[in-house]
Amino acid sequence: MLGSSPVSVLDYGADPTGVADSSSAINAALAASASVFIPDGTYKILSAIVITGNAKTLTGNGVNTILAPYGAINAIEVGDNVGNVNSGKISNLLIQAKDTSVLRAIYMRRAREFDLSDIVMFGLDNSNRGFTQQAIFCSFTWRCNFISIYGAYLSGDGIVMGTGVVGTECNAMTLIGCKINLADGYAYSGYGAGYTLSGCSAESCTAGGSLFQFCAGLQVSGGYYEACGAADQGHSIKVGSSQNGGSINGVYIAASGQTNHHAIELDTINGLFVSGVNFTSLTGAGSYGIYTGATVTNVVALANINEGGTGVLYGGSSYPASFKFDGANLNYGASIGLGSTISKYISATSALVPSVIPSVPGYIEETISVAGAAVGNTVTVGGPETNLLTMVAYVPSGGGAVTIRWFQLSGAAATPASGTYRVDVWQH
Length: 428
Prior knowledge:
single chain, mainly beta, three-stranded antiparallel beta sheet, 40 strands, about 50% strand
């Protein structure tokens, strides 16, 4: 039976100066106790630190405890493909790849309720990025919490939870207060069900900020994404491949003028709710705040969207069924099905009592004031039904109003119905 009292890796021969390999010493401490402490220092890692068994903890002293892996290894491995690792925690460590061939900082397989917190993962610098595969990779891992994880100078992805391969998917994963900066891949990627990202951010991640596929019950809230996604069809958040249920709320997305940038890209969606999202700097050609693929055919509701760039809020190759703008603030316009951008919508009503239409010239006109209406705008009009009359509307010379014109079709005098008339003005 393992001891329950914390043990120090120094007692098992670990070298805090970073000269000698400390891998075996740390593994010996983990074999002897369920609770292992790594004091201040730099620890050379030449083979993986392996955590198997249940309810184990590995703790350092924050950024003062540095694990320094070398070579094509995973710095820490949790579990294997044989049995589950139930419960446990890794916390308060800095893992810095000492060359560009290190595979991962942490590799988790078949872990259950195993938490990571207050972990920093670095490559050497921006020119010598580390962790060629992923900073953290999880395979068939469930109900884990990742709290305050920071990664930078990564040559692969940040935090990846499952892949498209059956048997790697992860479920009920929660990320809180995590940040991935300067990665050549995605900041976050998930395949499975029940993902929650709260207060997570990503900056300058080449592939994109987040990619979620086959993820039922996705919840993203309070995040910040800046300059994520390469120029060609890049995106900050991409959700698709049979996404069922979920929400994206309170997220701030700042592009950096890339062309063809999709701040949020949706594909094959069923019941995703997007609210309180702010987009900025969507100034590149072909850029969209929210972009949907042709296969989006189910309900998507949007509320309180503030688009703060020159791009449009929505664009796609076809307009999806049941796509709803609910309380949306389209400050910079919207486009449907990659059509012309609608930059402004204005509406006004007025109670009118039209006069009699004489037989010659056969029409009468009334005017409704509409502040901001300009000549050439698209105008529609609605009002009480009157038989044998045709009603059209246009913005007259000088703007600021809409003229409604009624034509009689019977060849005899007629009177349009009195009542409230509404005019809608669309500017492109």
